[in-house]
Amino acid sequence: MSMPAFLPAGPGLSLRPWRSRDARELIDAYRDPLLRQFTRTWPEDEAGARAWLAREEAGARDGSRYSFAVELAAQAPDGTGPAPSGVRDPAATGLLAGCVVLKVFPHDDDRPARTDTAEVGYWTTASVRGRGLAGRAVLALADWAFTALPALTRLELLHQVDNEPSCRVAEKAGFPHHETLTPHPPVFPLPGHVHVRPRPGA
């Protein structure tokens, strides 16, 4: 399945596939201590950023993950503010505001592939937090996922209990709390929340 070149996420915000020229902004984004607190790996330099981008591109090719850059639009043509994403040029370049990713559960030696469930992940850059952009980006990704993958019956969003902002993002994007997971140290030292959004109309 090919990724769309452009997904609107409300006024001034859009999703698009990652590009090689995003490497520098990606490195800068991951310098944020809060982002590092809730992620396990991150690019430290140009080579690491290129490897990160290559992994996301490979995931789209093999159907295991579909990762989008979240882009905040540049000024509208009249200079009054962000351009509505529905009229933006998909090739235009704005501010990198974050990432959203759809992780499709693959087949492995211990379990069959799960085509009915996928996981949503996201992060936002420090400069745009608190503006409601994460919820809009997650909602746009979820809507696209249910359209692009007809076998999906539900999407999951997981986070540790100490990441309270992710609870709010999940709720705003239509992912109510479903269950609490037990800790699995050292990778997951705290309990986790599972938020679930079922397919609309299911």
Could you explain the architecture of this structure?
This is GNAT family N-acetyltransferase. Residues 21-191 form the N-acetyltransferase domain. InterPro entries: Acyl_CoA_acyltransferase, GNAT_dom, N-acetyltransferase. The chain is an alpha+beta fold. Helix content is 27%, strand content 28%. The protein contains 5 helices and 8 strands, in the order E-E-H-H-H-E-E-E-H-E-H-E-E. It has an 8-stranded mixed beta sheet with strand order 1-2-3-4-5-6-8-7, sandwiched between helices. A hairpin with an 8-residue loop joins strand 4 (95-105) and strand 5. The radius of gyration is 17 Å and the shape is globular.
Which strand-content bin applies to the residues? 25-35%
Q: How would you describe the shape?
A: globular
Strand tally is: 8
What level of helicity do the residues show? Answer: 25-40%
State the order of secondary-structure elements, H for helix, E for strand.
EEHHHEEEHEHEE
- Helix segment count? 5
The order of strands across the largest sheet is 1-2-3-4-5-6-8-7
* Regions with little confidence, pLDDT below 50 for 5+ residues: 76-80, 82-91
